Structures
1.
Amino acid sequence: MSAYRFTVTGRVQGVGYRTFVALCARTHGVKGEVWNSRDGSVIGICEAEDCSAFLAALKLGPGHVQEVSFVEVTPTNPIGFEITKTR
């Protein structure tokens, strides 16, 4: 199982980006969560056997994606994929 914390910068708030991420997660069998950051970015955690296709899809979301960055984190085995509150 691999797990990553991802950050998406650009014009990604107020355009349905978190909903897009949740749909991508379900399509790619990814678990985790996504939220808006107070700095205008969108941040999340993804976990799956292989997160590469999901992470690549994040560049195609609505709005204007400037950059997608990610770092490996310790898996926590979430149940599903959630859209959560701004942090």
2.
Amino acid sequence: MAAFSDLHDDSELWAVLDSTKLQEYTTCQRSYFFQYVLGWRVLETSNIHLEFGTAVHMAMEVLATDGYTAEACAKGFEVFYDHYRKHFTPEQDEGNSPKTPGNLLRALPQYVAKYKNADKDDEILHVETAGVVHISVDRVLHFKMDTIYRGSNGYASREHKTGSRFSSTWEANWRQKIQAGTYNHVLYSLYPQIEVFGVVINGMFLHNEPKMTKDGRPYAGSKDNEFHRVPVRMTPEQMEGWRHDVLRLAEDIERNHDKLAATTEGELIMDCFPRNRETCTKYNRPCPYINVCSTVQNPVRLLAQPIPVAFEKEEWDPRDIPTVKERLEL
């Protein structure tokens, strides 16, 4: 019987690790296997959350480099709109609500009005930056950061996140995110420890324009666009805990892959990259791999067949991000 190593053309992209891959691995190792080892992605039209977020990042890059002005808002929206319209037609806007061009058009000047004074003295150092940072002598982690700057409290990064609803859970979630630790680790690797402030999660939560009463007041309970910033600061002791966790995950992935390489199509089950049966409906929707995962106990058997019709081959390489303007090796 053929083994996985005989059936799969291994590009070793599985060993190119970033926060996205590690976060998925902690959620479900079997989902990680389908997505980042086999490279199976759901066959679908443009993803509104992904493409809208990318377009917003492009607009925020303009504000970071050109300043918080009306002209920068107009230019930022133009950049946003150009990317957004490559993926969605005007007829799709209603279905994409509240992540629409109209709401972003209102949000940019609202953002500027809220943060213009707070950010006026920030010295922007790096924008849309990616690279690799060592987590041990022989292991590196790939990263991508939105804005690195020097503010009144020291060196920091501002990481843009978009959503439709702000909550205390969303806020608290960032304290333990591998991604937030990676941002902090890069800052500590770039600058003296005593001069590092930390990471600021820059949340933008879009809502449709609130309806007004006849006297010009919004109806009770209605919300306009919201902006919330969450500082995630980590002490050297916390960073050492983060580094320990990341190294453990990287070593665990390597052990699973070594076991996978020897797994044959004739075995009853695949005894590596185990399922997490409690996350099959994360984000309140079924995992895209749930059908194949629940019915096929040894996915190595599938490699001699065409990719299931629900998927396409698209491998994620964190070294190849089109929006990156600068690369660093730390």
3.
Amino acid sequence: MGREFERKFRADEGKIASIREKYGEFAPISMETVYYDTPDGDLGKRRWTLRRRYENGVSVCTVKTPEKGGARGEWETECGDIVTAVPKLCALGAPAELK
């Protein structure tokens, strides 16, 4: 399982320039995302996120679950559709209840 802890910061152009100077140019990622839930909203009630995202034309399916300390469990797989992705995500360690 991947574990994610995310922080976001606001940066002005000067800060962005210094980051580019230290780490190089950024690579843009074009994203289109679709989120899924059950008709009763069962995933949302658990604070789980199930999505399919096209990242520069590649279909990546992901499930995220809350973890202690503000972190999240995260599993993802390249897959063309969410129905096929769910068993693959579970095989990677996502909660079996996802099925």
